[in-house]
Amino acid sequence: FGLVYEKGIHGESLFAEFATLDPNVLAVKLDGCTKEDYVWGLRVGFITFALKGASEAQLKVLEDKAAGSVRSCISNASSIGQHLAVAAFAAWGVTASAGVRSWEPWYDTNGHVINAHGGGVMYDDGAYWWYGEHKVYGEAGNQAWVGVHAYRSTDLVTWEDRGVVLKVSDDPASEITAGCIIERPKVVYCPNNGLTLMFFHFEPKCDRATYSGGMVGIAQSARPEGPFRFLYATRPCGTIVRDQTVFVDDDGKAYFIAATGPKNAKLAVFPLTADYFDFTGEKFVIEASLRDEAPAVFKHDGWYYILASDCTGWKPNAARYLRARSITGPWERMPNPCVGTDPKTGLGPELTWGGQSTYVQKLPDGTFLALFDRWRPEAIHDSRYFWLPFSVKADHTFEIVWPR
Ligand code: DGJ
């Protein structure tokens, strides 16, 4: 079946050795759901018996007994067995299945293409929520004519459309009137007040052509499913901010991290107040950064990491990352973590396979999923996504590898 054994490991099940060992040895083999699902699909498990010199009648009794037992404890509740198998795979096998979508459209459970660009993921109570920019068809596609779209999933693969959770306003006097720019929404849960907060790069409608507004917009909801209410837009510490993200540390403290200043010269970290509604007024410039955009922050083993891109508009460029022992720095600049070439496009690390980072999601097994957008400026509504699993190594470095 294409099963692979490491060198030096016995090449077949020990069951074969026991099967004909002795008339007093009943060999029982249980194939678990990982193998059964991998080889045959949809099977939850498989039981095989062998007994040296056993007659047909003896084997029939064994089979009937086992079948009766299966019927009474599994068959009459088969959906539970299936459900457990799915839950087990979802808990720590997600990386394999949630991985790469490249130029393939990614469909939701209704069969519609997922519209959640520059997005972020939030885990809440057994489900993942994916929030992203809803792009529309046509030249004005990058302006916000709809709002922020949300999808829900328990396995990071199948996404259910949960609609537009932050709507732009029809009122021309509203700050978030249709036609403004809302980019890179990131959503976090605040344990101190039980509210769900959304942060996004905001450009007022009047600044949309030049991106000169350079603000962060903040919206709030009582629940992950929204609706989110726009609160306000600002420049934290009076600083121009563009590509941005939010990171909640293990102690519940939250940080807003953004490309700042003219030409996005430096990334900076702005601590948030305990309720996440505001900024503390502190600002930690990341001196090691250099025109970095698309920051995606994560933490592993006490170290902080920022996966980022260069600053070249919608065009792809080479990724890079920064790492630090403290979120407020000092940060160390690290090389491009991407490795390998996409054989379909011939694109490799020099252009991040045609993509740009947007978020890094920690998985239950301690590995990570790096989320990238593949922008199509000529048809921005039809931009695509690819997600790649990776792990942080013992020396506090990481590589993101395009799978062969
Ligand atoms: C690159 C940013 O990462 C995107 O979010 C968007 O702002 C484009 N630049 C606009 O050119």
Note down, in words, how this protein is organized.
By secondary structure, this protein is mainly β. The chain is built from five helices and 23 strands. A four-stranded antiparallel β-sheet has the order 3-4-5-6, with no helix packed on it. Strands 7-8-9-10 form a four-stranded antiparallel β-sheet, with no helix packed on it. Strands 11-12-13-14 form a four-stranded antiparallel β-sheet, with no helix packed on it. A hairpin with a 2-residue loop joins strand 15 and strand 16. The structure holds (2R,3S,4R,5S)-2-(hydroxymethyl)piperidine-3,4,5-triol. The site of (2R,3S,4R,5S)-2-(hydroxymethyl)piperidine-3,4,5-triol (DGJ) has 9 residues, from strand 7 and strand 15.
Quick structural summary:
The protein is mainly β and 404 residues long. It has helices at residues 15-19, 33-39, 56-73, 78-92, 94-98; strands at 26-31, 46-51, 117-124, 127-133, 147-153, 160-167, 181-190, 195-203, 215-221, 229-234, 241-248, 254-260, 266-271, 284-286, 293-300, 303-309, 320-324, 331-334, 338-339, 356-362, 368-374, 384-390, 400-401.
- What is the strand arrangement across the widest sheet? 3-4-5-6
> How many beta-strand runs?
23
**What structural class do the secondary elements suggest?**
mainly beta
Give the proportion of residues in helices: 10-25%
List keywords for this structure.
404 residues; mainly beta; four-stranded antiparallel beta sheet; 5 helices; 23 strands; binds (2R,3S,4R,5S)-2-(hydroxymethyl)piperidine-3,4,5-triol
Give me the secondary-structure topology.
Elements: H1 15-19, E1 26-31, H2 33-39, E2 46-51, H3 56-73, H4 78-92, H5 94-98, E3 117-124, E4 127-133, E5 147-153, E6 160-167, E7 181-190, E8 195-203, E9 215-221, E10 229-234, E11 241-248, E12 254-260, E13 266-271, E14 284-286, E15 293-300, E16 303-309, E17 320-324, E18 331-334, E19 338-339, E20 356-362, E21 368-374, E22 384-390, E23 400-401
Parallel strand pairs: 19-23
Antiparallel strand pairs: 1-2, 3-4, 4-5, 5-6, 7-8, 8-9, 9-10, 11-12, 12-13, 13-14, 15-16, 16-17, 17-18, 20-21, 21-22
Bound molecules: (2R,3S,4R,5S)-2-(hydroxymethyl)piperidine-3,4,5-triol.
(2R,3S,4R,5S)-2-(hydroxymethyl)piperidine-3,4,5-triol binds near residues 118, 183, 293, 314 and 356.
